[in-house]
Design goal:
By secondary structure, the protein is mainly beta. It has 1 helix and 30 strands.
């Protein structure tokens, strides 16, 4: 059974259906740098304030630089979407026979920061979310009902979490207090926690993948947790769990190279074991970092410049040749979405494909997923105008780009946080 991460996130100009082909442009990875504030720069009163816990309920305030909703599809073809509703409630949309059914998972004041959805064996779904007072909560659907578990207490979650279900169960990565990075995982019926990185290291929502045996390379192992985050000074950092319980850190990009939550994918098949990261770069660009620590590390590639206005969402389509990746993001044209895919024809290039039917509707970073049933289909969702929810899908053609068709699946006033 192949499980894919949600991504886990398009248009250029809204006045015409344009396909712009961008050649691959490479750039050197800048030397990673870290910055720290010394306690000498703070007054005793400021230090006391920084150390005193504040039990307060966070407000949803997302400008597209972090995920605000989540899409997943089971191996049997059942699609689901998790969103924040009115007054910070939590809702789940499930597809059934071509229609969508909306269910309240948690009442008002339960969800702050974008939810993260994973569907294992339909109809079972799991949703991780930042709860009230900066708690971390997991909701699990079983036999038609939702039950919840508080994974971390007050003042432990300060971002949208990233949920992934690996070979041995679920894991969650989330930003902790004072810009720390934490990893929680279930083992023998109990939740464990580990501080991945200390104060001043995490400045975005994390992107998590737990490797299966088909995603290992070299010293990597099944069950290994990989996490990508935006670090201090707009750096990009990659963390890998080790069997010893420690974490190995890889600086991926230096200062002023990352301006959103990243999207991480660990490849399989032809790209087995490669950790690849997409992130919004400087000047509203899209940067793609291939095989960041593997045997074939590549230079960062600029896939787009000036047109990226949200965190990206990346996925891998198993039907691709030679197994490249697809990325969606909110584009330059007002309220648009762009789907970027790899075309292996000729020398090979990435194509920025405007989803023209969505122009004027997009109010959030999109969430992108590649299905196994129907084989090769792409699905994406985004928050629309008037707090609506839209779903678009397209089959992967044998040549050329996919043709997306979409519909509103959530009425006005159902979807918030974008």
């Amino acid at each position: 059974m192949r499980l894919l991460r949600r991504g886990v996130l398009a248009s250029y100009r809204s006045d015409a259906p344009v396909k712009l082909r961008s050649t691959l442009m490479t750039a050197l990875i800048a030397t990673a740098a870290s910055t720290a504030l010394t306690s000498a720069a703070l007054t005793p009163a400021a230090l006391a304030m920084a150390r005193t816990p504040r039990f307060e309920t966070p407000k949803v305030a997302n400008t597209g630089q972090a995920p605000s909703l989540s899409l997943a599809v089971s191996d049997t073809g059942v699609a689901g979407a998790a969103v924040i509703g009115k007054r910070n409630s939590l809702w789940y949309f499930a597809s059934s026979g071509g229609s969508w059914r909306r269910t309240e998972v948690a009442p008002a004041d339960s969800a702050f920061g974008g939810p993260s959805l994973f569907i294992t064996a339909a109809p079972q779904a799991e949703i991780a979310v930042q709860g009230g007072s900066h708690t971390l909560v997991l909701y699990v659907q079983s036999h038609g009902h939702w039950r919840h578990t508080q994974i971390a207490g007050r003042n432990h979650a300060y971002s949208a979490p990233s949920l992934y279900v690996g070979p041995s169960g679920p894991g969650i990565a989330v930003q902790g207090p004072r810009h720390t990075l934490w990893y929680y995982w279930a083992a023998k019926g109990h939740w464990q926690k580990n501080e991945v990185a200390g104060s001043g290291t995490d400045y975005s929502a994390a992107s998590l993948v737990i490797r299966s045996a088909s995603q290992t390379e070299g010293s990597d192992h099944a069950g290994q947790a990989d996490i990508a985050v935006q670090g201090a000074a707009h750096t990009l950092t990659f963390y890998r769990s080790q069997a010893s319980g420690h974490w190995k850190v890889t600086p991926v990009a230096g200062p002023n190279r990352a301006y959103s939550a990243p999207s991480l994918i660990v490849g399989y098949d032809a790209l087995q074991g490669q950790a690849n990261i997409a992130v919004q770069g400087p000047g509203h660009s899209l940067l793609f970092h291939a095989d960041v620590v593997g045997s074939r590390p590549g230079l960062p590639v600029t896939l787009d410049t000036g047109d990226v206005f949200s965190a990206p969402s990346m996925t891998q389509n198993g039907e691709d040749i030679p197994g490249q990746y697809e990325i969606a993001f909110q584009g330059l044209a007002p309220h648009s979405v762009t789907f970027l895919y790899y075309n292996p024809a000729g020398a090979g290039s990435f194509v920025n494909d405007v989803i023209t039917g969505a122009n004027g509707q997009v109010n959030s970073a999109p969430s992108l997923f590649a299905r196994t049933i129907p084989t090769g289909e792409y699905d994406l969702i985004f928050q629309g105008r008037n707090n609506t929810l839209f779903y678009y899908h397209a089959l992967r053609p044998t040549s050329g780009g996919p043709v997306f068709a979409g519909a509103k699946i959530g009425a006005a006033g159902t979807t918030f946080g974008g």
